Amino acid sequence: MTPVERRWVGAVAVVAWAGVAMRVVLDVGNISPGGVLDRGLLGPYHAGVLGIAQRLLDSASYFTYWSNVLIAVALTRVWRHPDLDTTRRRHGYATALIMITLTGVLYAALIAPSDVVTGWNIPDNVVIHYAVPVLSVATWVIIGPRGAFSWRESGAIYPVPLAYLGYTLLRGALIHRYPYGFFNVVSLGYRTVVVTMLVILVASYLVVALFVLLDQRRGRGVRRSSRSLTP
Fold this sequence. Notes:
The chain is mainly alpha-helical. The protein is 70% helix and 0% strand.
């Protein structure tokens, strides 16, 4: 990785961290109160200090923030140690990249058409749902790191997404509220929600397969370039 590429990776990591930080500031300061009145969904919240814990915990219950935190960590690790290649880092980077990709795709396809974003939520929404997914995928395609995706290790991507789905169902069973309408057991029932989760998991593997193929192709291109430069 060249110095310019490393600086670019670091810059994208800063963007990801900025999106997460903006959400924390909005929640703590209650600058733009979150929450909806729809039955079974998260919110509404108490104003001021009384609602800080609830707002933070609910924000941490969105797949969006899981994926943004993970990709911020993954990119930061690549920036700090660009030549480090371990199984743990490959799995972590692959998991983060797939999750942030799903965040962008699912938001654009299922949530954005009916989502009403106002006030200071607008810049945060742009960063976490559009900028970070696009920049993260583009960075991986153009710069790397290579070797994060393979057929043999593709199953290692799923522990964190599965943990998120389990957490969503468990927390929802306790508080009877859910982060997304398509996961809203209160209005849809468990059968519909579980089927939806399974469909998303199957669709996500198509994304994984695409990334594996791209990784293999880009990896071959890098090896050919290296051989052509060898005297």
